[in-house]
Every structure is written in C-alpha cells, then in structure tokens.
Amino acid sequence: MTFKLEVLNLADAKQFKIDAQDAFQKGFEEYFGKSYSQILPESDIDNSLGSNGAIAYKAILDGTMVGGAIVVVDIERKHGSLDLLYVRSGEQGKSIGKRIWQELERRHPEIKVWETCTPYFDKRNIHFYVNVCKFHIVEFYHPRHPDPATPNDFIGDGGEGMFKFRKDLEII
To answer: Where is the N-acetyltransferase domain (predicted)?
Structure first.
C-alpha cells in the first residue's frame, strides 16, 4: 500500500471539502443518532484555507484520496494549528489518520507547539489525539467557558463542548 501526503491542488479542493464534511457529519450523526444540518459548513473550511499560513494536504492511498488536513503554521512563533484532519468515511481504522499526522510533523520540524480541538462527544478523536498523536488536553470549552474564537452558531460539538489539545515538542 502506497501512502502519500501532498499539498492539496485546486482540482481536488471540491472533493476534499465534500469528503471532510461527510466524515464529520457521519461521526456526529453516529453519536447523536439522528440527522442534523451540515455541522461542518463549507464556509468553515474556507475560513481555515484562507488563514494566514494555512496549508492544505490530501492523503493518497494507492492513488485514491482518502483523507486530508489543514494546518496553519506560524514559523516565527514555531506554532502550528491543526485546523482540520479527516479520514474519508469508510476508510477509518486503517491508520490513515496516524500516517497523516506523522507526515505533518515530519514536514514541519520547525513547529515546536501544535494545537487542535475536538468535540467532547467524539471518543475516537480524543483517543487519537491523546494516545496516538501524544497531545495533551489543556482546556475544555463549554457554554460557561466558551472558546472566544468559536462562532455563536457553531453546532459541531452538539452542545457538549470541545477539548483543546496541545503537543509541545520542546519538552517531549
């Protein structure tokens, strides 16, 4: 099996967005057991893609796009934000997410601190970030302690809150 992580090109951007939305939607609906409006709007993906320092990657396994990520890097601060990482629905459980993360770290050795967030309800993601990628939970956002960067109309956490994760490579 041949795995590659490549910078996302314009020709694949539409499919990247569709696959990311589908993966997030299915995870949300599996937990909550019912259908919801789009929990990852295209505008959220576009906002990440338009951030200063953003780089989008597509994961390719045997010639097929099976996932991707958007990172925002600040080389001066040696800080990286993992804005989005997804594995296409039906492809989970094959270590694709782990391979994406390992390749992101390899490609960005200048980054010493990585941060990301994931919903409280998503145990699979929490396991992935803590046990596989070695992030640490550093904050829990909820209605009484909101993330100042999260829009008021955000529904991706199902109202249950978000964990903020940090990986500090200088102390590992």
So the answer is: 3-170
